[in-house]
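Q: Hi! First time doing this. I have a protein sequence and I read that you can turn it into a structure. Is that right? Here it is:
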Amino acid sequence: MPPRVADVTADTFRELTRERRWLSKLSDDILRAQIDVAQIAAPTGAERHRARWVADDLQRSGLGVVIDGAGNVVARAPGAYAGEPVVVCAHLDTVFPEHTNLAVERDGARLVGPGICDNGRGLAVMLVLARVIQQCSAAFARAVEFVATTGEEGAGDLRGAKFYFAGNARPFAVIALDGAGDDRIVNTALGSRRFRIAYRGPGGHSWTAFGSPNPVHAAAHAAAHLARLKTRGAARSALTVSRIGGGVSINAIPEEAWLEVDARSTDDNTLEQLEREIRAVAAASMTEENDRRAIGTIPATHGVTRIGHRPCGQTTEDSPLVVTAMEATRLVGRFPVLATASTDANAAIAAGAPAIAIGGGGHGGDAHSTREWFDDTSSTAGVERALTIVATMARLAAD
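A: Yes, that's right. Below is the predicted 3D structure, encoded as structure tokens:
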């Protein structure tokens, strides 16, 4: 472990005493922002209203703000700095449809509401960091850029983060703020490949056209085979048939059926193997259904479309960023836990930048449900940790 980085982290923590006091006093402001932003609808692909709210807040803090081609809000404090910037990001989107009731209610020590934690907390902490870093007493060698990203959830496929990291110079370090927590450090990117398998046939009446190939039968056969696939290799992996559908009436042979498949692993070679097996099963299921069709009927066809690709990767335990994050976690009285997850950090790592994802303090649960909750107890530790990590990385000398 490079002792210099750990020493810089400890020095930065001490030098930020004034700023850490500010954060403690700003705890109620963070909560208010968290509630306000969580109550602005932002389903994946329709984040513009929440993006505008975040952009306005960053402008009030004195940052220059633009909204880029992917709808990301990008902000940087004025000033001339050498070298690559430190990037702090938090995703704008949620899994909830446009007309979900987003009211946040208090239940004892908990705030309860869709998106209050994921990612209301991450966005609120990013906004307060932008405000505090503007007036930070620590001497920075690098600019700090704040990015509120689109398309992090589900089928968004990290759209905003991929766009940002593809179109800008490689950052010196990336810290993604996602949800609650003050001890986990996500340094391993969980990759995924997602597929839609579609079967098509002539269809017809369930009695008079009986014997024509049935796309639903083929889809069901594929789903059963995929459920029995064994995930192999040294890396942990998972394969899930997550959605299936087709047909228009109970007394009609469907013209089309489909299923969607989610494959995950920490290793790209394993994902390649899973993709080959998924495509092979899809084809074999089509062949089996066509082999059963009546003579003279039109054969069915199929297609496999990749609908998502989240890259794998890792920021190693001995990298300056992870060393800093672990030391900062200890400095706020927590024990660091290295973890694996799929976040905006995946896109940064794939672009060659050291990246981690951390929580914004406090505790949360029931994510992606209308029962989602956040508990603010002792949450300042997580915000102090985030500030220490960002400030330390910004202090490391530019090339």
